[in-house]
Design brief:
With 325 residues, this protein is α/β, with parallel strands linked by helices. Helices cover 41% and strands 16% of the residues.
Length: 325
Amino acid sequence: MVKLSVIVPFYNVQQYAPDALKSLRANARDDFEFVLVDDCSRDGTPDILARAERELPGAVLVRREENGGLATARNTGIDRARGEYVTFLDGDDWLAPGYYPRLLAVIEELGCDFVRADHVQCTGRARGIHRVPHGRRGVVLDPRAAILPADRSTSVDYPYAWAGIYHRRLLERGLLHFTDGLRTAEDRPWIWKLHREAESFAVTGLLGVHYRRGVASSLTQIGDVRQLDFIRAFDQIVAETARDRQADLLLPKAVRTYCAIISHHLASLGRYEPAVARRLKSLGARALRRMPQDVLDRTLDSMDGRRATRLRRLRRRPAPAGAAA
């Protein structure tokens, strides 16, 4: 029986894939499988993965026939996973030796649906520890209760799929798949869904994932139209939260986070291609008008002056008919 399935999408990461694969080897166990998903890479990544399929214990290589993006590649891996537990790693990140056995031991001891973990952020040679924004560690908690308060960073603002481990029962309940086709912010609707619908979770301070930030090929560093998928992602969050049994309680958090993300992108317009910057402003205006207006009004009244002014100005902006994310 496979105890743990690790889903690892790769796309044009020949420079970093060897580090990821080496770290997987340092986490191998007889009852672990590593589902390596090649998302139609066009560089040397496929050759690196072909060698890993032969040499890495537990490797299962899956090749996609067309590039689908991170969400779709993860879904491809999930559909092949056989483990009692599931976790994720990105193909340009790496792990500390022996991390997965220790993480598995945490969730088995606690017996909860999922566990969230801190991680190490790596920017060049700099290292920094990023922690789950939830104070209680090592105890089983209600995921829904960790969504609020609206005006503070909470567990749903720490969306990284690879920062945790998940019991297979979540997959069987339809909670582990990502929104197909999202090219960025794919983990935002996913983490909200987990916190709304799973029954139990915990947080651990165990460190093991090294998240490589600032990679030139990462979508977070590319100012093209794919960045605008965050609008579709947060539209989904707001729509699903509006249907929730506690919509009145949870919508202010969803709307406030959406507004903060729009404001963040507006403050960074200079990194976008000009046509994409114009599209961002148009789509952002439409997004603000789609939100529950009473909740939006209260949100803007409670935000700092700079962000509130920026968003109110955008809200008044005419949006061309037919514009879409």
